[in-house]
Amino acid sequence: MGITEKDVLFEDNHFIAINKRGGDIVQVDVSGDTSMEDMVKQFLAKKYNKPNEAFLGVIHRLDRPVSGMILFAKTSKGLDRMNRLFHDRKVEKTYLALVREKPPHPKGTLKNWLLRDRKKMVTKAYDREVKNGSYAELNYEVVGTLDGYYLLKVNPLTGRTHQIRSQLAYMGCPIVGDNKYGYQRGSHRRTICLHSRSLSFVHPIKDEQMVIKAPLPEDGFWEKFNVLIKGNI
What we know:
Blueprint (H helix, E strand, L loop, with lengths): L7 E4 L3 E6 L15 H12 L9 E2 L8 E7 L2 H12 L4 E8 L7 E11 L4 E5 L7 E13 L2 E8 L6 H8 L23 E9 L6 E5 L12 H4 L4
Parallel strand pairs: 4-10
Antiparallel strand pairs: 1-2, 2-4, 3-4, 5-9, 5-10, 6-7, 6-8, 8-9, 10-11
């Protein structure tokens, strides 16, 4: 399935934001499946009638089972400047996560050291500094509850591989569908209930405040949680 105009959340001369479907990969991996990078390149080449391949820069990534807002650069200038904003932590990232276990507090900050197991492709969280580990920090808040699920707003302050998934699991709240991190069963759609809701930043070229949001997936499950968001997130 390719990218269509319906998937585009924002576009200007330098950037394009896409509402990623859970299960899509951002860049080519060992699976050989078509990547979002390639799909967006094809979309842009067709839209602007470019006989040669359109330029596209990958600024950040989302795990394959995660849905939501992802930003690509259409120019090298845009790529360089957005990379700098991410590096300097001047981009506010907001995620929405569904869990079944009640978090210990209505809101809080999680601080862990993460160690990546490259053979098992999982990240383990520790509450103390570990050799070769990376410091990770995020803020979470319980937005509301519905049908036995807790909707969390999550703002990662660092950008580590599987950070949200491993830190919430360490807290005792594995994400729904994430059996890699302790949820009792996985999704047959190879997705988990973690959604990249928005990015907030100052446009590095236009110097304008930007907030780009991705609506919840229309998959017959996520939509009912819109009542908890009420346009506030």
